[in-house]
Amino acid sequence: MQSGDGAPVIVIHSREQATAALTAAAQTGRRIVLASGSDAGGHVGPGWFRELVAAARDAVPQARFSALLDCGDDVGAALAAIRSHVDGIIFTGRADVAGRLEEIARQHEVRVETIRAVQALDLGEDFFASRNSLESRCTAYLS
Asked: Whose CA is closest to 66, among 124, 18, 114?
């Protein structure tokens, strides 16, 4: 249910889901973490995720949140995400590699998490859900 910093995590797969999650966060007054789906860093890339988060931030500027791009154990995806200045990444690879990535990320002011949230609301099955349905589901999760 919570990330390493204690905020509830919502796993998003589209801009519509991200906007719905941020709307629910703003309405409930909760700070949240938007996380990409597992290994998305290597599938959709950091540019897509960064722009998705920016569009959601513009749509709901009052929401308090951070965002994490899940790079799995893909070092190349993690480095690309760091260079792209996403808010943060999830890297689940070897600990020694994670340590080096954390050093690099610190220079770019990018957060690194090494463990996926054990419990999170994953909106993957709701890809085609209406905006109202997504917001309701997120609000219920945050309440």
From this structure: 18
Q: Measured between alpha carbons, how far is 112 from 132 in angstroms, rounded to an integer?
A: 32
Domain tally, the chain: 1
Residue 127 neighbours by CB distance under 10 Å = 11
- pTM (2 decimals)? 0.92
Question: For the chain (length 143 residues), average pLDDT per consecutive 10?
Answer: 72 97 98 96 94 97 97 97 96 97 97 91 92 96 95
Q: Domain of 51? A: 9-142
Distance between CA atoms of 101 and 53, rounded to whole angstroms? 22
Residue 40 lies in a domain: yes
